[in-house]
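*** Query protein ***
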Amino acid sequence: MMASVRSMRGTLLIFSIVAIAGFGCQATNDEVIEFERDVTVDDNEQVSRLLGTGKSYLDSDLYLQAEEAYRKVLRIDENNKTAIQNLSYTYRKQGRLDDAMAMDHKYVAKFPDDPNGHARLAAVEAEEMMDFDGAIGHMDAAIAINPDDATYYADRGFYAYSKQDDSGARTALPLALESYRKAEELDPENEDYGKYINKIIAEMDDPDMIAKNSLEELEEDPENPRLLRKVAKMYQDQEDWSSAASYYERLSAVDTGNAGVLQNLALIYLQIPDTTNAVRSYDRLVALDPTNVNGLVRLAELQASRSQRNYRDGITTVKKAIDLDPENARAWSAWGKALEYLEQYEEARAKFVKASTLNDPVWSSYAQQEIARQDQLIERREKLKEKAQYEANTGN
């Protein structure tokens, strides 16, 4: 997967040089074109002819003849870039990797300020020699010469990612991450860079690094719903509830029609715990989706909780849920609990009885316990009444 981001600069440049080097017709196996140095012909003209001949041989896969043509060029002009590069290519096609590598090093030695030469040599060292340290070193040199080319950083990132120790562990992931980030900075339109940044961070298994990268992305695009959701979920997974709530709030302001965001926000406020903001979130949820039974039930439970004490609001809300889903045992239980807090124990008991008959093992079981509790509360209330009546009658 990672290999696809590489510019493949070395290979591509060699082929492009072959494609444009000079002129000439297609050669055949029976044809060997010889050019002796002719003092009556300008050196530039002879070089041009030989480059054309070399290309003709390369087009016909006649690598020995192409080699001879390029060698003749170098006897006339030892600094001819095309001849050095294509001679390396002919060696490589013949399987003479050491000779090819020697020509690549020769090119870099003669033209140390050409970043493409370093990039080509890096590709060769990585692909043929598996020398990723050497490849990284040459990409460093290319970057030093031209620090504004995103593909140089991407290539270095690939070589750093590919570097492994004897156990197979990747040993240069921080450099790979740094390189791809710089590539993305220089070429933000290339979406691949961001994908590889995320992949590297995931492999680093470093929560702090993951957070840093996500926050940096969001800083550049602060209203991006995807990034806000990513950061909110990251903090949620880390159980950093306050931070998660903050980013879900921001997400809810951008993705205004998403009921799931408000539901997550409410649940996170309950984890903090912050019942007031949880109620506010469920209020927003049922305003957005009035048929959301789960949201209505949770809102009713919170409204009728001891902390909120909005018991009658809770009953009004839960009735809406029951109108939508008459078989919802949790809703009937929420109604019963609100009535209990209003000390209407007989009515509460009736709601719990209804809940206990519905097909919901969890809430039916809960309702059975609450029925017993209501019986106790009713009994206690009656005893208190009897005591009060006795005291009134006796004057005690």
In short: The CA atoms of residues 217 and 227 lie 7 Å apart.
